[in-house]
Amino acid sequence: MKADHKNLSDGELRKLLNLGDPAGDGDEPTLEELTAMRRTVLNAIDTSPAARPWLSRPYATAAATVAVALIALTLLLRAGPWGAVLQPETRPVTPAEPVPAAPIESTTAVVESPEALAAEPSADEPTVAAVEESQGIVPPTVEREPRTVRFTAPGGTRIIWTLDPDFQLPVSEPDDRARGEL
Amino acid sequence: MQSDTVKRLGDLFDAHQPRLYGLARRLSRDPEEARDLVQETFLRAARRPASIPESGKGAKAWLVRILVNLCRDRWRRLKVRREAFPQPVWSMGGPSDPESIASARSAVQQALERLRPRTRAVVVMHEIEGRSKAEIATLLGMSEATVRWHVATGRSKLRKELSHEG
Asked: What is the ipTM of this complex?
C-alpha cells in the first residue's frame, strides 16, 4: 500500500518519524564496547602544559601583573629618589678642548677656562652661601657636582660652560653712596 | 589534579553517553558512525578538559554542541556522495508489520540525511526525542525563534522527501 505523504499533518509526520527512528534498531554499543570507549577517552586526557589549569588565563594574567610590578619596582629603586630622576645630566669636570680661533659672529656666550670658573673665593671673604648657611636660610649642601653646558656658536665655535655650584659671589660692604641712599 | 580530571570525565561519560549515542545514531547513517561520533565527542573533551563547563547542564549542552558540530563536519565531507543517493522509496503497511517498520526506518533515515545538520538535530530532538523548543535552544545555543524556524523547515523538507512524488 502506497500513500501520498505530501499532506502529512505534524502529528502524522511525528508518528512516521518515531516509527522509523534510526535509534530504534536496538544496535546499541555492548558493555565491552562501552568499556573500551571509556578507557580510550580517559587515556586521551591531555596533560600537556596548555591543558593544566594553573596555566589557565586567570593564573597567567596574575603572573604577568606580578612580573610587571616587580620590574617597575626594580626600575624605581635603581632611579633612586624622585629628584634624582629629574636632575639634568651631569658630567665630570674636564679640561676644555682648545677652542679654535675662529671669530664668533653672534653670540653672547663668553668662553672661559674651567680653571677660572672653578676658582674658589678667598677664604677671608665670607660668601653669600656661607652667610645663608650660617643664618639657617638654606641647608648646607653635602655634595655638588659641576654642570656642563655645551653648544656651538653659528660660526662653528664649540663652547663649553662649566657651572661650578660652589661658585659664590663675594659679600662686600655697601659703598657709601648706597648707604647714603638707604 | 589529573585524577580529578579523570574522575570528572569518567562521570560525564557515564552520565551522558547513552543519550549522546541516541542522538548520534539519529544524526548518523549507521551504528558504527554513531559510536565514532560519541567517542570523538568525548575525545574532544579529554583533549580540552578545562573547556568543559563546571555545571552539569552546561557540560551536557557543551557535549551536545560538540556532537552536532562533528556531524556537520562529516555532513560537509560526505555531501557529494550523499547527493548521488536515489530518492527513498518505501511502503507503509500496519504499524506492527516488520517489513513496514524496516521500510519506514530506511526512508526516514534517508530523508533525515537530506536535512542540513542543524535542522536535522533540531527535528530529531523535537520530533523524536520529544524535547521542548526552549530546551533545544539551550542545548544548541540558539534562540527559540531559530529553533522554530529549523522545525518548520525540517518538517517541510521531510514531507517532501517522504513523498513518493517528491
From this structure: 0.79
CB B112 within 8 A of CB A22: yes
CB A87 within 8 A of CB A134: no
Give per-residue pLDDT as tens, A15-63.
Answer: 888 888 888 877 888 899 999 999 999 988 876 655 555 556 677 888 8
Q: Write down the number of H helices and E strands in chain B.
A: 8, 0
Contact list, A40 vs chain B (CB under 8 Å): 39, 43
Minimal Cα distance from B25: which residue of A? A23
| Residue A92: exposure state from Cβ atoms within 10 A (0-12, 13-18, ≥19) | exposed
Q: Distance between CA atoms of A138 and A148, rounded to whole angstroms?
A: 24
For the purposes of burial, counting CB atoms within 10 Å of the CB of A173, is it exposed (0-12), middle (13-18) or buried (19 or more)?
exposed
Q: Do B128 and A18 touch (CB under 8 A)?
A: yes
Residue A170 DSSP symbol: B
Residues in chain A: 182
Hey, where are the domains in chain A? Answer: 28-87, 91-171
Interchain pair A5, B13: CB under 8 A: no
Cell of B41: 565527542
Domains, chain B, with CATH or none: 1-84 (1.10.1740), 88-166 (1.10.10.10)
Q: How far apart are CA B129 and CA B139, in angstroms?
A: 13
Contact A162, A146 (CB under 8 A): yes
